[in-house]
Amino acid sequence: MSTATRTTPTGTGRPGSSARPDGPAAPARAASRPPARAWAVGRVASWTLAAAVPLLFLGTFFAWPVLALVGRGFLPDGALDLSGFADVFSRPRTWRIVGLTLAQGAIGTVMSVLLGVPGAYVLYRCRFPGVGVLRAFVTVPFVLPTVVVGVAFRALLRENGPLGFLHLDGTFAAIVAALVFFNYAVVVRTVGGLWQRLDPRPEQAARSLGASPARAFWTVTLPALTPAIVSAASLVFLFCATAFGTVLVLGGMQYGTVETEIWIQTTQFLDLRAAAVLSVVQVVVVVAALAVAGRARARRERALQLVAPGSSGAGPARPHWAPAVVTAGVLVLLALPLGALLLGSLRTGDGWGLDHYRALGTTGGRNALTVTVWEALGNSLRIAVDATLLALLVGCLVALLVSRRPRRRAARRAVGVLDGVFMLPLGVSAVTVGFGALLTLGHPFGIATDLRSSGILVPVVQAVVAVPLVVRTVLPVLRAIDPRLREAAGTLGAGPGRVLLGVDGALAARSIGLAVGFAFAVSLGEFGATSFLARPDLPTLPVVIFRLIGQPGADNYGMALAASVVLAALTAGVMALAERFRGPAGGEL
User: Fold this and answer.
1) Which CDD domains does this entry report, sorted A to Z (predicted)?
2) What pLDDT score was predicted for residue 453?
3) Which end of the chain is more exposed for a tag (fewer CB within 10 A), N or C?
4) Which of 398, 585, 405 is nearest to 483 (CA)?
């Protein structure tokens, strides 16, 4: 409880004291307050339940499959055998894969930051007509399924594509460009969200003292933005290093990464020991990236407390020409793959038309598919609904848990550790999770039904992948809530559940709506884990698109482009609708 000064009936007051209960209303107020012991018991029970549900869910459907797969690699005969590390790292192929992973992660991160910071300034610091539309547009690549991103760049860079003369199809440069295309929004939204709320007066003071705009930026604004830039860079590196669908479509076997190598070792070579070693390497990289992002995020939150209220909307009406030119060029480059995807889907053998879209109601040339594209889309929508509901329940409980700041230092450290643990699914290989679930979750806890053949595991694993994004969307809003609001509600007699709904739920409702959009879009486009778990008669749309790309014939490729357009339009529409729920304080990556 805060020690606010309360005024007594005689006009005096002292900190921590309350007014003397005079008059007939005092007994009613006293009776409305719950006993301290009952409140404490209810509070402990509520937090225990809030922690138990996500821990049980992620422990069963994330930690168990991952550890089981790693265990099969390191415990082949029931005894610990670490010779797999020496074996795997003695292969030149492994060092080449690790080098490519680190190279694409580092280059993709640097390029995303260099291009994203000017975009954050233009789209979040400046005011001009249409800025809201442009903010929504730069988010579209991030929510596109990775398979669709790969297909779009293939359509742009292939021999008869708009940029085919560059001869970049299947090159390392094409992969990096696709990763920057995908992650540009991470930098823009993360850095722009802070830049929008920075007090402009320190920079204005530097300018009034004779500093040039460039010097004022380097000496005043950039240091304030550094925590957000580091946080965004850490997340971009994580997304680049664990990219799967995009790299698989564009790079294939020649430019594989640790993520694609895990998939190859498990599906083609059945070498679980090599897959386990690579999974451990990837987990170490992910934990390091999350640790850096967490420290940067904590510094960022402390900086936001210093923002002067009412000054966040201040800023130039028009941006400076240099960042405006860079941002305009990036927006054109973002539109090129999407335009190439649409044009390629309309191109037929003898001109232009909707033939490829009409073919979506068939199983493709030479019956390349077991179901039609529309049936696969129906499967994806049903699975995405189930996955979104699960991710929303678990993610909101996690956000509620880690948003609290306990008074005890040990408790604060425990909350920080839980925050990092709950974010691990964001970076751990979805291939590892999917293959581990395939191996371990057939009959968990003695269940008679085989979950692998029932189709239940697909939405569950997709929910595991979506939970971290739900947490990152809802958590900033919950952390911004003044704890005195909860204390006041409890003092007035509200129980823990009523406080949760009336305070946290009401204030976080808009960010929850945005979280629904993120979870639904991620579930629609999830490919890594789903490629292991989807039944042949119930494939999802990303799985069907990948199958069509691997089939010979121009008609099958045209169907893949048309199906990608449908999936891209659907995910963009979902996010456009969800952005309407975005509140002024929430919805950042």
Assistant:
1) TM_PBP2
2) 79
3) N
4) 405
Question: In which domain, by residue range, is 476 found?
Answer: 54-74+91-346+354-579
- CA-based torsion, 514, 399, 526, 171: positive or negative: positive
- 282 in Cβ contact with 258 (< 8 Å): yes
CB 209 within 8 A of CB 201: no
Residue 557: both structure tokens together = 């490729």
d(CA 186, CA 191): 8
CA distance 487 to 19: 18
Q: Looking at the domain assignment, is residue 460 inside a domain?
A: yes
Show Cβ contacts of residue 142 under 8 Å, excluding neighbours closer than 6 positions. Answer: 182, 183, 184, 185, 186, 589
Q: How far is CA 173 from the centre of its chain?
A: 24
Per-residue pLDDT reduced to its tens digit, 515-531: 888 899 889 988 888 88
CA 323 from chain centre, in angstroms, equals 27
- Contact (CB, 8 A) for 515 and 395: yes
Mapped onto helix, strand or coil, the DSSP state of residue 389 is helix
Please report which helix (H) or strand (E) contains residue 52, including its range. helix 36-58
Q: How far apart are CA 523 and CA 382, in angstroms?
A: 10
Residue at token pair 């305009």: 328
- Classify residue 477: in a domain, yes or no: yes
- Cβ atoms of 438 and 272 within 8 Å: the answer is no
Strand partners for 347? 352
Q: What is the pLDDT of residues 193-241, one digit of tens each?
A: 788 877 778 888 888 888 887 888 888 888 888 888 888 888 898 888 8
- What's the domain count of the chain? 1
Q: Does some domain include residue 38?
A: no
Largest CA distance in the chain: 92
Encoding tokens for residue 168? 């970049």
Residue in the block written with tokens 């371990």: 440
- 435 domain-assigned: yes
Q: Which two tokens stand for residue 580?
A: 């309407």
